[in-house]
Design brief:
Elements: H1 5-20, H2 30-41, H3 53-72, H4 82-105, H5 114-121, H6 126-136, H7 142-165, H8 172-194, H9 199-209, H10 215-233, H11 238-252, H12 259-284, H13 294-312, H14 324-334, H15 339-351, H16 357-381
Helix pairs in contact: 1-2, 1-12, 2-12, 3-11, 3-12, 4-5, 4-7, 4-13, 5-15, 6-16, 7-14, 8-11, 10-11, 13-14, 13-16, 14-16, 15-16
Length: about 400
């Protein structure tokens, strides 16, 4: 039965959301269950799935799709002003703190690829926390605005820095110049995409979106492929291209008129590509590495604590912007790392042979634990309904 990878991967893809609905008193994110099922079906479990052939090829596409959807979810208009300023300063503080802490771990115990580990510690996941705060009613409050900004920078910052500093094709200054060119192309494309279009063009796109051609969806896939190629040619990591393509499509499809298009993209990317990435992560996960030696075992709780400290300590910058009862939930929410970005970082480190499998496994393992623990506690602390919580000022705080 191990010769049917597509079947078993789809079994995991269907089982994960079903298991997430079990009444356990807390909700386990679907992506965590997908990774766990990948481990169970992989080489360290039942041996029904192996990381080769179809799974290996689709894993790369799933990685790009996941970063595309992360870029598409960003809503810059909701966080401009004070929230964005605080989030940017807070992320810089987090990165400096991560570099200092990883510098210590570089010797006691030995942690290789310190820059990559620091970037992993400085990530924040928007996708995991948004449902928690939306269900509690806090997303449309000042707290929600501040977290949206912190989560956005916590996803964008590591990707940009990773693309600039981990590329070896050009010098740092050349990469900075290429980054300006790349961002300029995004702005031009976004301006064209958001401009008013002739009625015939709109009618044509709407007609083909509901036909077998699905032209707008195919155009989005082509855009992802084009930005992947462009990013690689400019010396960036290809994931930067996928993320940028997602930001562009997200800008163009904002509003009620773009909802049908976004729904179709969600169906294609989350329904097909994303499971290959997260289940594939479980298949590749080096489970024995976690118990290979005492140092690696200790790294998991260490990284778990560092996720909270590195992204949580900057809460002191917010002062009166957060109520006293909101500070701990904000720390916990900010400390939930982006599993997709961490997997990408460890994948790059393993591929370049600058990160050991033990460190990669400890980072992913700690990220999985944090995603299971931190959102649950944050949701419990925010159980109070936000009737008296200050609302968002769309112009800033």
């Amino acid at each position: 039965m191990s010769g049917h990878p597509a079947f078993w991967l789809l079994v995991a893809a269907v089982a994960a959301p079903l298991l997430a609905e079990l009444p356990l008193g807390f909700k386990v994110p679907v992506v965590v269950l997908e990774v766990v099922l990948g481990i169970a079906l992989g080489r360290h479990g039942l041996g029904l799935l192996h990381f080769d052939g179809l799974v290996s090829a689709m894993f790369t596409l799933g990685m790009a799709a996941t970063l595309f959807m992360a870029g598409m979810e960003l809503e810059w208009d909701r966080i401009r002003g004070r929230p964005l300023t605080l989030a940017t300063i807070g992320w810089v503080v987090s990165l400096l703190l991560a570099l200092a802490l990883v510098g210590v771990l570089h010797d006691i115990p030995y942690v290789d690829a310190p820059l990559m580990v620091a970037l992993a510690l400085a990530t924040t996941s928007l996708g995991v926390l948004l449902p928690v705060f939306r269900d509690s009613g806090h997303l449309d409050t000042r707290f929600g605005s501040l977290f949206l900004a912190a989560g956005t920078i916590g996803e964008v910052g590591p990707i940009v820095v990773m693309s600039l500093l981990l590329s070896h094709r050009y010098s740092t200054w050349q990469e900075a110049g290429f980054l300006v060119v790349f961002l300029g192309l995004i702005v031009v494309a976004a301006t064209i995409g958001m401009a008013k279009h002739p009625p015939r063009v709109l009618a044509f796109l709407n007609r083909t979106m509901h036909a077998s051609a699905q032209l707008p969806v195919r155009m989005s896939l082509l855009l992802v492929a084009g930005f992947l190629v462009l990013a690689q040619e400019l010396g960036f990591e290809s994931i930067f291209g996928a993320f940028a393509a997602g930001m562009l499509v997200g800008l163009v499809t904002r509003g009620e008129s773009g909802e049908p298009m976004r729904a179709k993209i969600d169906a294609v990317f989350f329904g097909w590509f994303s499971p290959f990435f997260f289940v594939g992560t479980g298949i590749r996960f080096d489970l024995p590495a976690l118990t290979r030696d005492l140092e690696t075992m200790l790294l998991i709780p260490t990284f778990l604590l560092l996720f909270l400290l590195v992204r949580g300590i900057p809460v002191i910058l917010y002062g009166k912007q957060l109520r006293p009862t909101e500070r701990m939930p904000f720390m916990l929410a900010s400390g939930v790392p982006s599993l997709s970005i961490i997997v990408v970082i460890t994948e790059i480190g393993l591929r370049a042979e600058v990160m050991s499998g033990d460190i990669a496994a400890a980072l992913v393992g700690a990220a999985l634990l944090s995603i299971m623990i931190f959102p649950t506690i944050a949701g419990m602390l925010l159980s109070e309904k936000p009737g008296s919580v200050r609302a968002i000022d769309r112009r800033g705080l």
